[in-house]
Amino acid sequence: MRILIIEDNADIVANLYAYLEPRGYTLDSAANGYGGLALAAQNEYDAVILDITLPGIDGLNLCRKLRDELRTATPVLMLTARDTIEDKVAGFDSGADDYLIKPFSLVEVEARIKALVRRARGTNVIGNALTVGDLSFDPSTLEAMRAGKPLSLTKTGYKLLGCLMREAPKVVPREKLEEEVWGDAPPDSDALRTHIHALRQAIDKAHPHAMLRTVQGVGYRLVGSDEKN
Question: What is the pTM of this model?
Fold first, then answer.
């Protein structure tokens, strides 16, 4: 497995190399955003480990460039000391697939990388386009639109959207959504809430009617654009 590390803390990079290389990983690294972007453009990677606070281009803008300019779907794990819900939402909105707070366990880093790569390699969502109200989603092309306007989601966002649309208007329990995204190894308890927040921003922010509803203590549901309750 080949991984790109974009991190300006030399000690963290050294620790990642010392832990991952003996386990068979091939690693490249860059200490600034421009170097990381250049390596990502030149090579194929199974995953990217990305710091947010970087010289040159910060991690959020770098992740957006990976998605929007390089058009790469390579899984991105953000490592950062920023731990507020707003920081996490910003990370996922930029295109990250997972978010890990410093200080972190190297064992957890490897586990998260393996999970991201496993999901990326196994993502073969097939089927016809789904429609709920003025919201549409084609799992085979990952094209999502509301009221004719395209939606830009993370890979996790697309998975959540597909699950919610297939079950709409029924309530989808938190546990089912977590299993849909992470299998039997869900991350910390804030992860689903953070992804749902980002999905809600993408679906509902520009529209007067909110389609993604929270059912307290149970889960979430998608309702048609003309449903009031």
Answer: 0.57
